[in-house]
Amino acid sequence: MPPVSIQDVRVIATQPAGSRLLIVKVLTSEDGLYGVGCATFTQRFHAVIAAVEKHLKPFLIGRDVSRIEEIWQMSMTHGYWRNGPVLSNAVSGVDQALWDIKGKRAGMPVYELLGGKCREAAAVYVHAGGNSPEAVSNSVQRFMDEGCRYIRCQMGGYGGGAPRIPKPDGAPDGAYYDRREYARGVLRMFERVRKDVGGEVELLHDIHERLHPIEAVQLAKDVERFKLFFLEDPLAPEDLDWFRNIRQQCATPIAMGELFNNPREWQPLIADRLIDFIRMHVSQMGGLTPARHVAAFANMFGVRTAWHGPGDTSPVGHAANLHLDLWAPNFGIQEWCRFNDLVYEIFPGTPEVRNGYMYPNNGSGLGIDVNEELAAKYPCKDAVEQWTQTRLPDGSPARP
Ligand code: MG
């Protein structure tokens, strides 16, 4: 195969729904050959655009597109400071685009390059919600009617909604929550849902690192009787040493990782078998290249994959998740956010979900593209993020 080199690297920024989405497009010396990759960091998108176009691009122009691993290693280290969310997302955009290019050159989908399929489609989980146990239960039943078998249950979003405890005079605006009230609400919710739908459907829940570590240990024990498929992010990345306490106290399956971007965050949890599902945000960890290393590493320890798949992963990122899911022997479950029709129009090839399974298409590479003209009609809007300005009842700042 004659060498093909990188000719240009640019970022497509678009906001067709709630999240600002960033796609890196890598153009090559071969006429018409290009790749796309997800670099979405919706809250800091300007910084990622600058990292790609001002810092990575000059380093990448002229390089051989086939050398994905080498380019990843050098992209992550040649700025000396590494492993941050801005750089990791920027590197991911380039990395996924290079996998897309490699697949297009080979005439194969990316899952074939990874080792081929272990399964025909990836089972997904969806998000049920409501402001009362009854509303959540109704939402779960609607998803079950659509053929969903894995359903995440949240009451009042993360943290259970506004607290009943009054705020002190002068407390600033913000997204308030109350840890104790939230933890009690989770138990009320699962009591009702299990009573209504029985034990067959797989239920999940995301604590979103909103509890004190000891409260998280308590809740993991308290929900054990509901036989969850997994309990997500019970602890913050800053409190990793507490995972051992959860393990010692209960057999609730634990999922963790969407905030991780440093290998030292996931390595000990996997090697010590302190979690059951790794669920990094694939662009936040640097792309397909590190994700496949982690999947293989986790497989050695009986830990399954559950890559992060919310609305602030672009459809290109969801396609990358799907290729990993189809290949990985230790695939566990895939989160799915359900995009609107406009997103499917802007991103032809966005994975389709039928009857609880996400299916690949017949395209080579990642099997997805971007309609740039249409994407340009929905530019990213600047706004100060509100939901992440979380506070406890007394007004003090808390993790979102
Ligand atoms: Mg989560």
Notes on the protein architecture:
The chain has 400 residues and is of the alpha/beta class. Helices cover 37% and strands 16% of the residues. Strands 4, 5, 7, 8, 9, 10, 11, 12, 13 and 14 form a ten-stranded mixed sheet that branches. Strand 9, helix 9 and strand 10 form a beta-alpha-beta unit. The longest helix is centred in the first third of the chain and has 22 residues. The chain is globular and about 65 Å long. The chain starts with 5 loop residues before the first strand and ends in a 9-residue tail after the last strand. The structure holds magnesium ion. The site of magnesium ion (MG) has 5 residues, from loops.
Binned, the helix content reads 25-40%
As a whole number of angstroms, the C-alpha radius of gyration is 21 Å
Q: How many E-type strands?
A: 15
How far the N terminus sits from the C terminus, by CA atoms, comes to 49 Å
- Rounded mean pLDDT score: 96
DSSP helix count? 13
Given helix and strand content, the structural type is alpha/beta
Ligand inventory reads: magnesium ion
Shape: globular
Instruction: Give unreliable regions as ranges.
Output: none
Could you spell the SSE succession in H and E letters? EEEHHHHEHEEHEHEHEHEHEHEHEEHE
